[in-house]
User: Which sequence fits this backbone?
């Protein structure tokens, strides 16, 4: 009765979920998540599904696809660049999974949103600085030394 209370499994599962959220870009898989939860793969997969309503693999894929959707809207990166940047290894599989999740392929999803450049907020001081004439005569006389 004087033993140490075990940590509730939900905390271990949250540790694995946090790992997926933080490191989804890496070559992370269910085995890595199970190790973070300190559970066997089979037990971890059952408990994760029971606790969160989806398999660990599906959770990781969903996280990657969410980030990919964000990058499609906020960058001009190619679909392949986005695929690899979110930790996926096959553009074909990425396109299939993305289409299943979002109802349209990545290129069509991007086309439904205005280009990222149209939403770029440039501070007015930068606009003024780059709007100045390039042939300014400011301080030209300082280059001449008195003779």
Assistant:
């Amino acid at each position: 009765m004087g033993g140490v209370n075990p940590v509730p499994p939900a905390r271990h599962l949250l540790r694995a979920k946090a790992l997926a959220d933080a490191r989804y870009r890496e070559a992370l898989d269910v085995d890595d998540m199970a190790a973070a939860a300190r559970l066997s793969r089979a037990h971890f997969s059952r408990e994760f599904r029971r606790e969160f309503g989806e398999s660990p693999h599906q959770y990781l894929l969903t996280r990657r696809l969410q980030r990919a959707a964000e990058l499609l809207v906020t960058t001009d990166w190619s679909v392949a660049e986005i695929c690899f940047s979110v930790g996926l290894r096959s553009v074909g599989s990425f396109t299939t999974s993305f289409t299943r999740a979002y109802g349209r392929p990545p290129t069509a999803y991007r086309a439904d949103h205005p280009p990222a450049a149209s939403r770029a907020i440039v501070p007015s001081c930068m606009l003024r600085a780059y709007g100045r004439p390039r042939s300014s005569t400011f301080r030209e006389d300082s280059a001449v030394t008195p003779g």
User: Anything to note?
Assistant: The first helix runs from residue 9 to 23. The domain at 9-132 is CATH 1.10.10.60 (Arc Repressor Mutant, subunit A). The mean pLDDT is 84.
